[in-house]
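[step 3/7] fold_predict: job queued, chain A
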Amino acid sequence: MDTQKYKIARLLAAYFCDGITEKEREKLMEWINASKENHDFFETICSNNRSQEKFAIYQSTDWKKALENFERTHYPSRRISRKKFLWYAASIAVISSFSLLLSRPQYSSRNISTQTAQVEIMSLATLTLSNGQSIVLTSRDSAFTLNSIDVNIHAKNQQLIYKKEGEFSHKSNILKTPRGGEYKVILSDGTFVYLNAATELKYPVVFDSLKREVYLCGEAWFEVQKDSQKPFYVITDHAKIRVYGTKFNVNTFPEEGMETVLLEGAVGVQGVKSLKECLLKPSQLARVSKETGQIEIKNVDPLLYIGWKDGLLVFSNERLDNIMNKLATWYNVDIFYTNNNLKDIRFSGYLKKYDKIEIILKAIEESVGVDCGLKNRTITISQ
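[step 4/7] structure written:
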């Protein structure tokens, strides 16, 4: 989406959120009156039920609680202006909506589905014990005890909780999510791990006295408990991550290489083909090449990489091919392109992770001008 359209989206957001200044109002009116097309577009969104629904959702949301959760999760030591937070919250929702509409050719007023039904089951995984026994976990499970270690599955939180009752155990468990599933686990040391879809995590039932090691294939969010005497490692096929008590995301899916994004604390990243450890700072990404083992570090917006854990799929000028691959993993569907050139189309915006896939596909269609046909769990992309 170009800069001019983004500016107009911001003006529209300010107008609908009652935060527009006189100068901004003049600019908006100038744009509206510049062409019949702009005028018709403005009238459409003013009368569109979808716009009204956005503000109904905004007004019904407990933003005070949302702010408290946001501060506690991401900035525990910093107070954020409530007024500023409310403005940003409203602006993000509204700007994203208008950005999608403005990006469409000729601002067509074709009706967009407003259905917000949720995916029926998202908490789904298989727990494999050291003896080979497998247990299917869903959001409907209740607490039970296994292997002399209490493993509590709370239906409310959909997570495993390991309670340490002994010393180091050579027994390991494997938690695996399928495509279309996710699950959470609190390890015996108190470390929290959130597994995204199609992910496998192997870990000891009880960590030993010298180090803590887990093995990951897929994508997971980590909140590691600090223990200076027992370093924590996340090991993948292409890298080893040393953790210094922190919050970060690990993703082994990208074809270019394994990606680690740090939100808080510090981690050291080392390729399996190298002895050198590269230290990451907050808001940095480390990518370890699957081909060469070389490590690339760059500054990023963490939300683009960790939004999934908070129910958002956030994209910034990303290839349609990459976006559809993520949707295929999350919704357990296959993707087919009638023309491979469509894979290179770029998309920016945010999508709600728990919306029905039909709503997600409609938003993409409206934004980039492609058709997304869904039949028998296969999405056909055409133009």
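[step 5/7] annotate
The chain has three domains: 3-107, 124-303, 315-382.
The chain is about 30% helix and 30% strand.
exit 0
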